[in-house]
């Protein structure tokens, strides 16, 4: 740990020296530089740099990931958007049209997806095919072998266990519905102002391991803030252990990603015939320009890259689970399912080959008792955040907020299950480690969102350069 701190302090010092020296010699910055000049080089707490991520993501990963996410297995996500907010009652759903979510009609979702959540077991698939022929899908549960039943029971137990970072949506509830993610894209909805701030505020204020006395900088709900409080905030953040700092960065990265998306798919024009969506450079600058945000914007973009690295690492770790011969991306269309599995494995191998992965071994590496407590705190804070998503007063934002927190929660579950994954049998039911279809769909779609944000940063960089 001591060596780690020394290295970190040295790294931060070097970055400070480099950036401060740089500023003195340069002519006035362009709009592109004001958003991006500080978003380059090494990321805090990591050995990776932004440029390596950009190249890897934009040219090698992004196109293939988009193709995978368009497949039937990944485009349908079951979600309960009607769960009541457990924290307060006054949620205004004041009818913004762009907040509406159109659920699927039951005949739109492939039967293979609807009928069971453990479809990737070879045995279960065979049984289901037989059952489908006999037109009695309902018999699947009872006809599973003893071994598979045992595994399913174990998985259910595991899903409720202390390894889960998210409050699982009750997808068996009559209120839960399938949503086609391609038809309900994450984009500008007009959800803003005190309602949206309240959510972000609760997420940060109550869940980021922060002493009450320290307010976040530029927080629109906190009054009387000034520069000195900003400095207190950052000296507090820097004084935190790497895990607590990581937690804040993950949330801030998710927040930045959502705001990149709404700036990239902004409602530019509306006529009675059609709506035009596209990049809104001013919106992007207001959120991320170094001067307009008093240095905050570039920091937030760096947090987005940090989130990218964490999810990338989780995907590289979970490869053995997907490589098992009896794992299937089951939708009922055999040829398509096999092709999609090949594409999924290709993507995961590409991810594994990434040279500068985040070293999660530095997480919870201290004293065993303390590490255990910290991991538990981390998990509880994260579960709390997933419950806050039920308070988001815009259904479209709630859908994507839920999906992305579940995806990040799944990534954290993977990172903390390394030994269980390593000990998984190569075939047959896995008792210790399991991912539900919901977790798989949210994991890849959440990563798809962050990957798209990184790609969008390149688009904004080009757009900003072209206007100056
Ligand atoms: P906000 O983004 O609301 O931020 C509030 C304050 O937090 C800022 O003033 C700043 O001090 C601080 N802050 C901002 N960004 C960061 C960061 N990255 N890290 C740390 N601190 C930060 N709107 C849409 O149009 N489409 C969506 O799909 C959508 N999804 C949402 C999902 C959720 C869960 C929530 C809570 C909101 C969502 N919104 C969405 C709303 C959107 O995120 C903003 O809240 C809204 O556009 C208002 O923006 P703002 O500039 O007032 O600041």
TrEMBL record:
<feature type="active site" description="Nucleophile">
    <location>
        <position position="394"/>
    </location>
</feature>
<feature type="binding site">
    <location>
        <position position="187"/>
    </location>
    <ligand>
        <name>FAD</name>
    </ligand>
</feature>
<dbReference type="GO" id="GO:0016972">
    <property type="term" value="F:thiol oxidase activity"/>
</dbReference>
<dbReference type="InterPro" id="IPR007266">
    <property type="entry name" value="Ero1"/>
</dbReference>
<dbReference type="GO" id="GO:0050873">
    <property type="term" value="P:brown fat cell differentiation"/>
</dbReference>
<dbReference type="GO" id="GO:0007519">
    <property type="term" value="P:skeletal muscle tissue development"/>
</dbReference>
<keyword id="KW-0813">Transport</keyword>
<keyword id="KW-0560">Oxidoreductase</keyword>
<dbReference type="GO" id="GO:0030968">
    <property type="term" value="P:endoplasmic reticulum unfolded protein response"/>
</dbReference>
<keyword id="KW-1015">Disulfide bond</keyword>
<dbReference type="GO" id="GO:0019852">
    <property type="term" value="P:L-ascorbic acid metabolic process"/>
</dbReference>
<dbReference type="GO" id="GO:0045454">
    <property type="term" value="P:cell redox homeostasis"/>
</dbReference>
<keyword id="KW-0325">Glycoprotein</keyword>
<dbReference type="GO" id="GO:0030199">
    <property type="term" value="P:collagen fibril organization"/>
</dbReference>
<feature type="binding site">
    <location>
        <position position="189"/>
    </location>
    <ligand>
        <name>FAD</name>
    </ligand>
</feature>
<dbReference type="GO" id="GO:0051209">
    <property type="term" value="P:release of sequestered calcium ion into cytosol"/>
</dbReference>
<dbReference type="GO" id="GO:0071949">
    <property type="term" value="F:FAD binding"/>
</dbReference>
<dbReference type="GO" id="GO:0070059">
    <property type="term" value="P:intrinsic apoptotic signaling pathway in response to endoplasmic reticulum stress"/>
</dbReference>
<dbReference type="InterPro" id="IPR037192">
    <property type="entry name" value="ERO1-like_sf"/>
</dbReference>
<keyword id="KW-0256">Endoplasmic reticulum</keyword>
<dbReference type="GO" id="GO:0007179">
    <property type="term" value="P:transforming growth factor beta receptor signaling pathway"/>
</dbReference>
<feature type="binding site">
    <location>
        <position position="252"/>
    </location>
    <ligand>
        <name>FAD</name>
    </ligand>
</feature>
<comment type="similarity">
    <text>Belongs to the EROs family.</text>
</comment>
<keyword id="KW-0249">Electron transport</keyword>
<keyword id="KW-0274">FAD</keyword>
<comment type="subunit">
    <text>Predominantly monomer. May function both as a monomer and a homodimer. Interacts with PDILT. Interacts with ERP44; the interaction results in retention of ERO1A in the endoplasmic reticulum.</text>
</comment>
<dbReference type="GO" id="GO:0005615">
    <property type="term" value="C:extracellular space"/>
</dbReference>
<feature type="binding site">
    <location>
        <position position="200"/>
    </location>
    <ligand>
        <name>FAD</name>
    </ligand>
</feature>
<keyword id="KW-0676">Redox-active center</keyword>
<keyword id="KW-0285">Flavoprotein</keyword>
<feature type="binding site">
    <location>
        <position position="287"/>
    </location>
    <ligand>
        <name>FAD</name>
    </ligand>
</feature>
<protein>
    <recommendedName>
        <fullName>ERO1-like protein alpha</fullName>
    </recommendedName>
</protein>
<keyword id="KW-0472">Membrane</keyword>
<dbReference type="GO" id="GO:0034975">
    <property type="term" value="P:protein folding in endoplasmic reticulum"/>
</dbReference>
<dbReference type="GO" id="GO:0006979">
    <property type="term" value="P:response to oxidative stress"/>
</dbReference>
<feature type="binding site">
    <location>
        <position position="255"/>
    </location>
    <ligand>
        <name>FAD</name>
    </ligand>
</feature>
<feature type="disulfide bond" description="Redox-active">
    <location>
        <begin position="94"/>
        <end position="99"/>
    </location>
</feature>
<feature type="signal peptide">
    <location>
        <begin position="1"/>
        <end position="21"/>
    </location>
</feature>
<feature type="disulfide bond" description="Redox-active">
    <location>
        <begin position="394"/>
        <end position="397"/>
    </location>
</feature>
<dbReference type="Pfam" id="PF04137">
    <property type="entry name" value="ERO1"/>
</dbReference>
<feature type="active site">
    <location>
        <position position="397"/>
    </location>
</feature>
<dbReference type="GO" id="GO:0005796">
    <property type="term" value="C:Golgi lumen"/>
</dbReference>
């Amino acid at each position: 740990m001591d060596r780690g701190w020394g290295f970190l302090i040295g790294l931060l010092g070097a970055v400070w020296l480099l950036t401060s020296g740089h500023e003195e010699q340069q002519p006035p910055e362009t709009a592109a530089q004001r958003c991006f000049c500080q978003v380059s080089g090494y990321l805090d707490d990591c050995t990776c740099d932004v440029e390596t991520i950009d190249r890897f993501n934009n040219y090698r990963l992004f196109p293939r990931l988009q193709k995978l996410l368009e497949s039937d297995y990944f485009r349908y996500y079951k979600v309960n958007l009607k769960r009541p907010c457990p924290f307060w009652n006054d949620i205004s759903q004041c009818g913004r049209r762009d907040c509406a979510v159109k659920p699927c009609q039951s005949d739109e979702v492939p039967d293979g997806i609807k009928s069971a959540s453990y479809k990737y077991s070879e045995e279960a698939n065979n049984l289901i095919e037989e059952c489908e022929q006999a037109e009695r899908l309902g018999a699947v549960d009872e006809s599973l072998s003893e071994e598979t039943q045992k595994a399913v029971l174990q998985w259910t137990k595991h899903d409720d266990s202390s390894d889960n970072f998210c409050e699982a949506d009750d997808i068996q509830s009559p209120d839960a519905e399938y949503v086609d993610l391609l038809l309900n894209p994450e984009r500008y909805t007009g959800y803003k102002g005190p309602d949206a701030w309240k959510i972000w505020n609760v997420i940060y204020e109550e869940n980021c391991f922060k002493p009450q006395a320290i307010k976040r900088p530029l927080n629109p709900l906190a009054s009387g803030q000034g520069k000195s409080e900003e400095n207190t905030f950052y000296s507090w953040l820097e004084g935190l252990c790497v895990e607590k700092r990581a937690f804040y960065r993950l949330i801030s990265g998710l927040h930045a990603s959502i705001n990149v998306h709404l700036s990239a798919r902004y409602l530019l024009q509306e006529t009675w015939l059609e709506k035009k969506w596209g990049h809104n450079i001013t919106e992007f600058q207001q959120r991320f320009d170094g001067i307009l945000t008093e240095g905050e914007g570039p920091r937030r973009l760096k947090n987005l890259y940090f989130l990218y690295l964490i999810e990338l690492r989780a995907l590289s770790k979970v490869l053995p689970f997907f490589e098992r011969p009896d794992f299937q991306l089951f939708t009922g269309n055999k040829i398509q399912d096999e092709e999609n599995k090949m594409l999924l494995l290709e993507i995961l191998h590409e991810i594994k080959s990434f040279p500068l992965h985040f070293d999660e071994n530095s997480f919870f590496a201290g004293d065993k008792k303390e590490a255990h407590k910290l991991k538990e705190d981390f998990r509880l804070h994260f579960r709390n955040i997933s419950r806050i998503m039920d308070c988001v007063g815009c259904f479209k934002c709630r859908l994507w907020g839920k999906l992305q927190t579940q995806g990040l929660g799944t990534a954290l579950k993977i990172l903390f299950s390394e030994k269980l994954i390593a000990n998984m049998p190569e075939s047959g039911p896995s008792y210790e480690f399991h991912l539900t279809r919901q977790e798989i769909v949210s994991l890849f779609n959440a990563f798809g969102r962050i990957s798209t944000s990184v790609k969008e940063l390149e688009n904004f960089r080009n757009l900003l350069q072209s206007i100056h």
